[in-house]
Amino acid sequence: MSQSVAGVIWQRFTKSPIPFDMTLRHYLYSCALLLLLSCAKKDTPIPVEPIKPPAGSFTFTALKVNELFSGYSYYGLNASPVFKISFSGPVDKISVASAILMKDKDGNAVKTEITYENNDQTLIIKPLSPLKSISKYFLDIQTNLKAGTGANLNSAITVNFTTQVDPADKFPLISDDELLTLAQKQTFKYFWDFAHPNSGLSRERNTSGNLVTSGGSGFGIMALITGVHRSFISRSEGLGRMQKIVAFLKDKAQRFHGAYPHWLDGNTGTVIPFSPKDNGADLVETSFLMQGMLSARQFFNNPDPIETQLRKDISTIYNEVEWDWFRKNNSNTLYWHWSPTLGWDMNMPIRGWNEALITYVLAASSTTHGIPRNVYDNGWANNGSMKNGGNFYNVQLPLGPVNGGPLFFSHYSFLGINPIGLKDTYADYEAQTKAHSLIQYNYAKANPKNFYGYGESCWGLTASDDINGYLAHEPNNDNGVISPTAALSSFPYTPVESMQALKYFYYKLGDKIWSDYGFTDAFSLHDAWFASSTLAIDQGPIIIMIENHRSKLLWNLFMSAPEVKSGMQKLGFTSPNL
Question: For residue 55, what pLDDT band results from cuts at 50, 70 and 90?
Answer without folding.
Answer: low
